[in-house]
Every structure is written in C-alpha cells, then in structure tokens.
Amino acid sequence: MAGIASLGGKGAYIGKVADDTLGHVFRHDMNAGGVAYDTPPHSNGPSTARCLINVTPDGQRSMSTFLGCSPLLTPEDLDPAKLASAQIVFLEGYLFDAEEAKAAFVKASEIAHTAGNKVALTLSDLFCVDRHKAAFRHLVANHIDILFANEAEIIALYDAPDFDTALAAARKDCDLVALTRSEKGSVLARGEEVVTVAADPVAQVVDTTGAGDLYAAGVLYGLASGRELEACGKLGSLAAGEVISHYGARPLVSLADLAAARGL
C-alpha cells in the first residue's frame, strides 16, 4: 500500500495491530504515507507483529517473524464500504494460517465481487503455500481474479514440474497472473496475452526485502489506472528496483517521479 501511495494511487489498509507502541507507530506511518488505516486495534492477547531481517552482503535476506495479532483478523473486522469502493482488493497470503483469517478472505472477496470489483492475492511465502496447498488452490480457483507469486511459490501451488507448467495451470484459474523470477524479471498473462518484463537494472542490490510487495504495488497501480499489461509489469519492475537499491522495505523516493521520468 505504501508503494501504491508513492505512485500516486489512493488506497486503504485493513489489518490487525495491538494497542501498543509498535501498533501506534505502524498506524501513524501508514496514515502519514497516504494510506487510510482505521481498523480497531486488538486489545487483549498477542502484541503487534514484528520481523527481524538479516541481510547478507549479496542483498539476500532471511526473516525471523512474530505474527503477533496479525492473523487474528476476522470477518467482523472488515469494512464493507471500503471493500466495495476499491477497484481491486489485495489479499496477503501470510494471513492464511488462521481459520478466521481464511473466512475474512472469502468474505472480502464476496463483497468485492458483488460490487463488481477485482480481487488479487499474493501467495507471499513458500512454506505457507506448502502448509495450506489445498485451501489455497480452492481460494485461487473460486475467489481470485489476479494472482501474484514468485517462481518457487507457483510451482509449489500446482505441484508442477517446471515454471511453464505452473503458469499454464494458473492461467486456467485466474484472469490475470503476475509471476516474478528474480533476476529473470517477470511474466504477466491475461487471456491470450503473455508478456515478459525484464528486471529493472540497479547499480547494486542492497536489500531484497520488499521486492515482491513493491512489484505488486506497481502492477496493481498500473491496472487500476488503465495501463496496458506490459506497462503494468514495467511499473512493477521499477518499484521493485527502487526498493532493492537500499535498506528497508518502503521506497525512499517518489515512485511517481521515477515513473514519469521513464514515460510510464
């Protein structure tokens, strides 16, 4: 959502934080960054989620994550008016461990589709896909219009022998598929159209944290603003390229300015 706001888009966030210091900081930063966030805080039980990220000299990262109260999102936490007004509702696969969060996914997709809008999902994590493969397959086939995944995640989801087989399977389930392949760029498919977009060149890969999130931000912003599929992929690559050029998972410069300079 921070990436979409940096591109000039308008968005809102629905998610659980606790009534604690980290929760207050997160809520403040989201709103200050142009993302509307007013989900009531969780007052009893686990604290706000946090993640310790170790980045190696080659820019790769490993994460130690405490999900805290994040998976405690329930269908009752959803804001039907926000969901119905959004062109695209974007679901985060990390939440799929909790049964109530799964129910919230389904309810959110039903509200969006009733309003005539699209629903996107990012698989987010290979281990989460492996834990809930059947449930993810059902969700993707029945509730998702736009699917984001990296190469390993999409192969795991469909138990496919290779990337091309997994891509073909995903295209049968979803209207649009956007798959990242690290330094090989990304592949986007919609109907009979398939485009390959190169990874954005950067002088040095400093920290790959947030690359997939910012890629999704660029693609979603492009779709919401009516751009062609290739342009959507290029916006995704541009946003991902910016965030891997420095430490941290949010852009440090205006993505809208970068996109304008590229003619996107």
Provide a short characterization of the protein structure.
This protein has a single domain, classed as Ribokinase (UDP-N-acetylmuramoyl-L-alanine:D-glutamate ligase, 3-Layer(aba) Sandwich), CATH 3.40.1190. 42% of the residues lie in helices and 18% in strands. The protein is built from eleven helices and ten strands.
Word description of this protein:
This protein has 264 residues and is an alpha/beta fold. It has a single domain (73-261), classed as Ribokinase (UDP-N-acetylmuramoyl-L-alanine:D-glutamate ligase). 42% of the residues lie in helices and 18% in strands. The protein has eleven helices and ten strands. A six-stranded mixed beta sheet has the order 5-6-7-8-9-10, with helices on both faces.
Order of helices and strands: HEHEEEHEHEHHEHHEEEHHH
Helix content: 40-55%
Please identify the top-level CATH class.
Answer: Alpha Beta
CATH superfamily: Ribokinase
Count of individual helical segments: 11
The chain-level mean pLDDT equals 96
Lay out the secondary structure:
Elements: H1 2-6, E1 11-13, H2 21-32, E2 35-37, E3 50-55, E4 61-66, H3 80-85, E5 88-92, H4 99-114, E6 118-122, H5 126-131, H6 133-143, E7 146-150, H7 151-157, H8 163-173, E8 176-180, E9 186-190, E10 193-197, H9 211-224, H10 229-243, H11 255-261
Parallel strand pairs: 1-2, 5-6, 6-7, 7-8
Antiparallel strand pairs: 3-4, 8-9, 9-10
Helix pairs in contact: 7-8, 9-10
